[in-house]
Design goal:
globular, single chain, 214 residues, mainly beta, Glycolipid-binding domain-containing protein
């Protein structure tokens, strides 16, 4: 079960946004990722006993085909619960808890700032290096209020390489992700269920090796 910490920052000006402490693991029915977001390290807002410094949380569960069977996000008092149902369906609740809006889009999955969504999309697509780029429609839940936005991306697996480590070979995959509305491209590097690097994401600490998907 990988455990560790990502640092999240603005991919354009590199402003620190948050630290995301996570654990994740494959199971008999799929994969689950759970995390808590806290103020970025070095901001002087370190946790103290009894204080609540959480900026939000992520709880994502996939089935064995990579589809989101349960998603719960919290940020700035807002909450979203969603799942794959007639495309993807979600309920978004405001900080007061008095208003909830439902949404449904003919999309494949969700995405957002958490590294969990990159792993989830790669798991859903199951690309091979010799395959052509694959188009995927996603519902992005954007910070700071988890506002939903539908977007289309193209994913291609560029390389899959084994790197020697003390714990055996580490398989690293490089994906090229293209935003189809702007043509902007970026690289995502994954190893199993851990994001090694991506725009706005740095892996700062990893206590145990990534899980290997079958």
């Amino acid at each position: 079960m990988p455990r560790g910490r990502y640092s999240l920052h603005d991919p354009h000006d590199h402003t620190p946004l948050a630290d995301e402490r996570f654990h994740c693991a494959p199971g008999p029915s799929g994969w689950r990722y759970v995390s808590q977001l806290t103020p970025p390290s070095g901001t002087g807002r370190a946790e103290t006993p009894g204080s609540d410094t959480s900026l939000g949380s992520v709880d994502l569960a996939l089935d064995d085909l990579g589809r989101p069977i349960r998603l719960e996000l919290h940020a700035s008092g807002w909450q979203v619960r969603g799942a794959a149902l007639d495309g993807v369906t979600w309920v978004r609740t405001d900080p007061t808890g008095t208003h909830a809006t439902e949404g449904n889009v003919r999309a494949h999955a969700f995405t957002g700032t958490s590294p969990a969504f990159l792993v989830a999309t790669a798991r859903l697509l199951r690309l091979t290096p010799d395959a052509s780029a694959t188009r995927v429609r996603l519902v992005a839940l954007t910070d700071p209020v988890l506002a939903p936005r539908t977007l289309d991306q193209s994913w291609a697996l560029i390389t899959r390489e084994a790197h020697a480590t003390d714990n055996g070979p580490l398989i690293v995959e490089e994906y090229q992700v293209t935003a189809l509305d702007t043509g902007e491209q970026h690289a995502v590097h994954l190893s199993g269920d851990v994001v090694l690097s991506a725009p706005g994401i740095e892996l700062e600490d990893l206590e145990t090796p990534p899980s290997v998907f079958n």
